[in-house]
């Protein structure tokens, strides 16, 4: 929820070796989808391992507002009694999606082909993010939208009375846009076709298939062509949510840069559309191994073991890998500052429209800690001077962005002097246990600035 709360400054001091087992939280992308598809199925879906971060809790509350029964059984175990495709009720109140772009965009898609109205809002970060990328394709189904200038929230959607199926090429690499169109297609008659030029995370396609939707994926000259047959009866599922690679990235990267560290991060989802960071780290020379590879609930999973890696080298991260690690560039730039030489991250324009402008937020904060960073509209490059070379002593702005806050706290663990963030509050959106988990491994994070 986006009630304004006092900022929580946090300071991370240089620490000794990190060691132990890091039990990181459930996958945020999969958690949102499990709740939304559970609400659109007819009957009882059981979910274990759900991420209970603020973003996902906001989506659970929204699904209740649309008429589903959503029950928290404790310890990540949830039940959703869904209303079926086309069964959404009109919410009585404004839907507050807090900080979550994924939540609001997927829910807009899910309601866009039902003849109901809903008004969406969020926090200052979400209300400044572009929504036209979703509302433009939803208009093709017959959905009307009334928002602030520039397609910003708060915004009211009036779902289509007589939805038409759509054929849509997603103009930017965005799983949120792709998923919004697919979820809208569920309640449109006939076939909805979504084409993406670059593959993005495919959790929606995998989960739609599991819920019994007719969905086909073909790679051809146009790109990845996804064809969904509308108005299926979705069958309720039992879903075990794997742990989030985007959250695992923080203890993994911390272990790579803090001298003497050896950390095991078990049960991490390694869907190839998400695992680009780990390939990149290994190319840089990280001592990062996959143990106990297995398949859980249709997603590849492994235990990750990360050890201090003093000889990492800067590399050029291939732009075509960007979609598979889009949320991991902030923490990669922290590792890059501790590697030897330049790390060039190109083809990352989407970073400018995340919870914050992540290129700018990282460049400014890294410079405040003594790191040389160059940037352009869709790229940034970090000059690394090797393990332990970062001066630190910066107070970095987190801009209501959980991943920016966690990245700078990891930077402080391996710097010469402590690093502060002005507000660690947003960490609760995706990784509520971050402070305690990192402290359990040996990190020193305290409230207040340096
Ligand atoms: C997400 C897609 C990505 C990612 C976000 C989660 C999803 O955003 O950055 O954190 O769950 O579909 P885009 O779709 O805007 O690329």
Automatic annotation (TrEMBL):
CDD domains: EPSP_synthase (cd01556)
Organism annotation: Pontibaca salina
Entry binding sites for 3-phosphoshikimate: 28-29, 33, 174, 176, 327, 354
Protein family per UniProt: Belongs to the EPSP synthase family.
SUPFAM superfamilies, per database record: EPT/RTPC-like (SSF55205)
Pathway as given in its UniProt record: Metabolic intermediate biosynthesis; chorismate biosynthesis; chorismate from D-erythrose 4-phosphate and phosphoenolpyruvate: step 6/7
Record's catalysed reaction(s): 3-phosphoshikimate + phosphoenolpyruvate = 5-O-(1-carboxyvinyl)-3-phosphoshikimate + phosphate
Assigned keywords, A-Z: Amino-acid biosynthesis, Aromatic amino acid biosynthesis, Cytoplasm, Transferase
Pfam entry (one): EPSP_synthase
Family matches, as InterPro entries: Enolpyruvate_Tfrase_dom, Enolpyruvate_Tfrase_sf, EPSP_synthase, EPSP_synthase_CS, RNA3'P_cycl/enolpyr_Trfase_a/b
Domain of life of the native organism: Bacteria
Gene3D superfamilies noted in UniProt: Enolpyruvate transferase domain (3.65.10.10)
Primary gene name: aroA
GO biological process per UniProt: amino acid biosynthetic process; aromatic amino acid family biosynthetic process; chorismate biosynthetic process
EC number, as in UniProt: 2.5.1.19
Known function: Catalyzes the transfer of the enolpyruvyl moiety of phosphoenolpyruvate (PEP) to the 5-hydroxyl of shikimate-3-phosphate (S3P) to produce enolpyruvyl shikimate-3-phosphate and inorganic phosphate.
Domain Enolpyruvate transferase intervals: 16-436
UniProt entry tagged with the keyword Cytoplasm: yes
PROSITE patterns tied to this protein: EPSP_SYNTHASE_1 (PS00104), EPSP_SYNTHASE_2 (PS00885)
Subunit field text: Monomer.
The protein, known as: 3-phosphoshikimate 1-carboxyvinyltransferase
GO cellular component, one term: cytoplasm
Record keyword Nucleotide-binding present: no
Molecular function GO labels: 3-phosphoshikimate 1-carboxyvinyltransferase activity
Compartments, as annotated in UniProt: Cytoplasm
Location of the active site: 327 (proton acceptor)
Binding site for phosphoenolpyruvate: 28, 101, 129, 176, 358, 403
